[in-house]
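tl;dr need the bound structure. longer version: we got a ligand (nicotinamide-adenine-dinucleotide) that a collaborator sent over and nobodys looked at where it sits. i said id run it. heres the input, straight from their email, havent touched it
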Amino acid sequence: MSTIAFIGLGNMGGGMAANLVKAGHDVRAFDLSTDAIARAVEAGCRAAASTLDALEGAEIVVTMLPAGQHVRSIYLGGDGIIANARSGALLIDSSTIDIESARAVIKAAFERGLDMVDAPVSGGVTAASAGTLTFMTGGTKSAFTKAQPYLESMGKNVFHAGDAGNGQVAKVCNNMLLGISMIGTCEAFALAEKLGLDAQTFFDISSTASGQNWSMTSYCPAPGPVATAPSNNDYQAGFTAAMMLKDMRLAQQAAASAKASTPLGAQAEALYALMEVAGKDDLDFSGIMKLIKGSL
Ligand code: NAD
């Protein structure tokens, strides 16, 4: 059993902290939201009064925060996690953030002699609660080896993607591909319908032909073929268009910094931004079907 500080008990972090408790750890939980702390206590965590209070005795620190600026502000500086974690502590940031922030924070941890990994996740709130997340981890081999058993308590697939920041690289590239493939899938189903081919028949053919992809077979944006898909529930999220847009923006930021050409990623970002402008970014990201069909 380890003492774990867990900071950021939102939609994802709440379930993840609960799974660390189930694995037998002593989890000291903190969030800016008192409701979130109360839910974590119900799941068996111990409430902490602040981030610094949560660090008390913690051998492991896990953070699950909205974006890069939150991660920088909580880790860096005199009152940050890096300056105040006990020596020998292992730091794990599972937030989805920009690669530059991830590398800057891990470098600062390294300079204080602390092991740290970036370990963003794939899989939504249901996977966070069920402990079936996929972790994409960046950091040294030894930091990864130390983090692995804790990540395995919260997920079913745990990958070492290479050096610091490479977890975020894997995450952002995967989600850019997902965002693009979803739009392409919507276009194909919308066109098939206009040309007189119903969704189920097109699905039966294309899902066994070369157009087959995850957005189609597991999350079909046309109502009907995949019973569990948000398209059958008026596109209630799921994974919101707002979260997809966040990841598309991270991908474009990363592409600009690497001088990489990602024209479809740029176009996909622009399309998800239209959902934001229309005030419909709380829909599932597959709800971009409505935009493609002119019915957003
Ligand atoms: P969320 O907004 O529900 O939770 C974030 C939590 O962090 C909130 O409870 C907030 O109060 C807390 N917080 C913010 N600043 C804090 C601080 N300084 N100290 C303590 N607590 C603080 O977000 P979420 O859906 O849980 O997502 C978390 C991360 O996981 C994001 O980076 C997101 O992109 C990523 N992610 C989310 C999903 C998803 O389906 N929701 C899937 C994959 C990855």
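gonna send this back to them w/ a short note. The radius of gyration is 20 Å.
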